[in-house]
Task: inverse folding
């Protein structure tokens, strides 16, 4: 069984209008939500094999704050422009090309792409995939054969639902 963790970046700050969208950092609420998510994840004892993260500042900061919860070293993450500009087809193709020895993958990026990705892979409609939401998708098969018939939505965690 393989698992795909899909994490939308936490709430970003709009305080500095001189920054481009790509350069926007996390807002205080985003930092708090990411830390809350990390603490929750520590209790789950997840071990991620590979991280694919958008190289936008808010996505990097979200991953940096949650890396401990995923038991993953920050400097081993793969940062990709295509997760900032990309689409679901590109992400699914990248997943299909993963080494079969990898079982647990984390994708950190942006909406609407991640919302659509979760819906496409699981054939489930999600009402909202808000900032710092984490979807866990189970995949019963090899990466090369990734398709919605072999995937199911295991969980959808929202920071506002967490107590810590």
Result:
């Amino acid at each position: 069984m393989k698992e795909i963790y899909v994490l939308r970046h936490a709430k970003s700050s709009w305080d500095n209008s001189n920054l481009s969208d790509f350069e926007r950092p996390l807002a205080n609420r985003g930092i708090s939500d990411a830390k809350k998510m990390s603490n929750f994840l520590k209790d789950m004892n997840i071990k991620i094999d590979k991280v694919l993260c958008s190289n936008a500042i808010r996505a990097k900061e979200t991953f940096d704050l949650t890396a401990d919860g995923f038991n993953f070293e920050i400097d081993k993450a793969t940062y990709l422009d295509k997760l900032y500009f990309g689409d679901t087809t590109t992400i699914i193709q990248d997943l299909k090309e993963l080494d079969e020895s990898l079982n647990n993958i984390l994708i950190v990026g942006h909406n609407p792409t991640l919302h659509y990705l979760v819906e496409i892979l699981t054939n489930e409609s999600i009402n909202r995939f808000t900032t710092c939401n984490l979807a866990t998708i189970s995949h019963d098969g090899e990466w090369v054969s990734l398709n919605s018939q072999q995937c199911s939505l295991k969980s959808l965690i929202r920071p506002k639902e967490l107590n810590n």
Remarks:
- Residues 28-44 form the longest helix (17 residues).
- The radius of gyration is 15 Å.
- The chain has a mean pLDDT of 95.
